[in-house]
Amino acid sequence: MASKLTCRVAAALALMGAGSAQALEGAWTHYGVRPLGMGNAFVAVADDFNALFYNPAGLARLDDWYLEILNPSIGASGATVSIFKEITELGKSGAGFAKTLKFIEKHVGETHHVGMGITPYFVKKNFGLGIGMDAGFSLEAHSDLDIHMNLGTEVMVPISYARSFLDDRLSLGITAKIYAGFEADENLSIDTINSLSGDGSSKLKDLAKGGKGVGFDVGLLFTPIKTMAPTLGVMIADIGDTKLAPLDATLGKQDARPMAVNLGMSVRPLESGNQYVLLAVDTHQVNQPTHFSHKLNMGAEWGLGRILKLQTGLSDGQLTAGTQIDVKLLKFRFATYAIDHGSIAGSNERLIDRRYLLQIKLLI
User: Fold this and answer.
1) What percent of the chain has pLDDT over 70?
2) For the whole prediction, is pTM greater than 0.70?
């Protein structure tokens, strides 16, 4: 039998994943699977339901209505998938404190992540509404038996309206969104983990923050000519900062969501029959003090009508890839991307967290 301490540490490390809420990783919006596959460069694309989150102006350019109710997603870090087997073996071996230390030292600095979400929506030309919901947490083990924990849940409910002008060359959109979030971001020592494994409700309350509020986004798309459809995109999220009221009297107050100015350009160099090639480049949160290496996003997509889409790109200095298959009632979306937790992207390979995200549309 593994010691009580070993079980608790192993259990804590096993939780190195449940998708840390996007707010905890500096996300300015609810990220979509297809955009993540193409390097998250989507501000000047915005040609599907993701327009609700990336640029509401895109709703003015939809050619039909679209509805999804059940479209659950699940994601995990590559390191998290491989660590589960080790944790199981550690628990079965009756490992003591020394073996547990070795296990933690081996994975020092790794960020482990598992997340779940759902994005029901209804969009049609000029109008859309949806819900972007993500929940989970991530953990990172340190060499001093200290574990950095990010725990959170985030819900974003956008209601958007858009119109086109100048013979559809210019599109403008506005979103009113309801936001609610809960987060805990702390370093946990062994003593803290022991206390949380018992009656730790009061300590959890001390660690947690929550907030709710209403914010506004505006977006613009400008396509001066139809040939190859070169498009400029502008999306300003959380205009004037979205102030948040306390979510609950027992929780601390969450900080306001800062305004994010996002710019993008896209072009379609090939469009023949039902095939096309789409190229895009974005700069996100240009008004915020994040290093430029985290702001640049580049992407490409090849599509065969609505049946098949293949994506690739570059985000956080790392390659991304994705696919989308749409066959009757089944829609399958997959993306792999990376989040670099370093202050400068690419400065430390140990801080690069490669992730895999799967979403399936069920029925409608």
Assistant:
1) 77
2) yes
